[in-house]
Write a structure and sequence with these properties.
By secondary structure, the protein is mostly beta strands. The chain is built from 2 helices and 19 strands. It has a 6-stranded antiparallel β-sheet, with no helix packed on it.
């Protein structure tokens, strides 16, 4: 009986220590431990929603675990209260201060409560990483989410891809044609299919252009697609005479 009692006590304690906060971005995408959230401009920041799934009110804090590639003075962020400038290793709100940020049992933080925005400062490199840890005060080792907020000037996200277009010249083509890919796409795959969907060419290129001779292509209509990181950037119709 004592062994059973100790077993149930152990299970209860384990459950109480299990992570009970979860984080999503403003679009509902889950942010898990060790995830990286990347932005390519300093006007769009990360808005997070934190949910406390426990049965108790908790106090939240943010730790700046590390900052790589910048001084931190360009980071504008909020966790209940708002700050401008982040120091590596610091905790917000300051445990020695009078401000406390609480989240009720079963509640989700407001959109204005917890967000991050890196502003480029003079001399900052093109890539900056902030390792951030949001945790329950007094239970940091068990109830937390640690992730990376990354600024990368060369990053191309899904939203940016939708605005990118390739070009084909000449079109119609007789002897040759060139497929030009946007400059900020580092590596892409050019796929040329006929009107029935059969792939005629499938070429991987690390340049922003692909040159093709029309030898081997029958006159007709083709579709040219550019794919990068598994996403189709653009598809255009090509006529070969």
């Amino acid at each position: 009986m004592k062994k059973q009692l100790l077993f149930f006590v152990f299970i209860s304690l384990s459950l109480s220590l299990w992570a009970q906060i979860s984080i999503t971005d403003i679009n509902g995408n889950q942010i898990n431990n060790d995830d990286t959230v990347t932005f390519n401009n300093d006007t769009e920041g990360l808005v997070t929603l934190i949910t406390n799934s426990s049965a108790n009110q908790i106090e939240l804090r943010l730790k700046s675990v590390s900052i790589t590639g910048a001084r931190g003075d360009g980071m504008e962020f909020c966790i209940g209260a708002c700050y401008y400038g982040m120091t590596e290793g610091a905790v917000y709100p300051d445990p020695a201060g009078t401000f406390h940020y609480y989240l009720d049992a079963g509640a989700t933080s407001a959109e204005t409560d917890v967000h991050f925005l890196h502003h480029i400062q003079d001399g900052d490199p093109k890539v900056t990483e902030y390792v951030l840890k949001i945790y329950e005060d007094g239970n940091e080792a068990n109830n937390y989410v640690q992730f990376v907020y990354k600024y990368d000037a060369n990053y191309v996200g899904i939203k940016d891809i939708k605005n990118l277009q390739m070009s084909i010249y000449p079109n119609p083509a007789t002897d040759y044609f060139t497929v030009t890919v946007p400059d900020n796409i580092n590596e892409s795959r050019i796929i040329i299919s006929n009107i029935l969907g059969k792939v005629e060419k499938n070429v991987l290129t690390d340049k922003n252009k692909g040159f093709f001779k029309t030898d081997g292509f029958s006159p007709g209509i083709y579709f040219v697609s550019v794919i990068s990181d598994g996403l189709t950037i653009d598809t255009k119709k090509l006529i070969i005479r």
